[in-house]
Amino acid sequence: MSSETSAVRLPAYGTGSLAEVMPSVAAVLGVPGYDDVLGIQALAGGGPSSGHVCC
Length: 55
Fold this sequence. Notes:
The structure is a single chain. By secondary structure, the protein is mainly alpha-helical. The protein has one domain. Helices cover 35% and strands 0% of the residues. The chain is elongated.
């Protein structure tokens, strides 16, 4: 096995990892201290004051 194929691939931090998604999910679920910076509430069809995530 060459060193190229055995290299460990690191997660793409800062480009869509859970670390970026979870604060917005927490905000949509109503956890105090978090902001929905990704706009998940609006993407799910609920406005910012709809009181629900989807459906």
